[in-house]
């Protein structure tokens, strides 16, 4: 249930972003290390929002995996 609520909130944020993006058509330059692109301001905000969500999920999964695997090597060494 918690995951479903999280996904629903994330989808709602993306939909609101797309709605505001259809209203605001202002372009901005995005300078990266090797390229420079012109994107709408809302597209840049959406890209960084999604990158932040993905980074947060990755860190949460790594933390969860670390907690589940704690003591795993010790258990296999004790069985020998």
Automatic annotation (TrEMBL):
Keywords: Membrane, Transmembrane, Transmembrane helix. The chain crosses the membrane at residues 45-65. This is Lipopolysaccharide assembly protein A domain-containing protein. It comes from Rheinheimera nanhaiensis E407-8.
């Amino acid at each position: 249930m918690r995951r479903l609520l999280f996904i629903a909130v994330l989808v709602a944020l993306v939909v609101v972003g797309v709605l505001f993006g259809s209203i605001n058509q202002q372009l901005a330059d995005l300078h990266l290390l090797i390229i420079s692109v012109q994107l709408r301001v809302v597209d840049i905000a959406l890209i960084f929002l999604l990158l932040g969500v993905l980074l947060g999920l990755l860190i949460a999964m790594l933390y969860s995996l670390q907690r589940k695997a704690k003591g795993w090597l010790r258990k296999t060494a004790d069985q020998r």
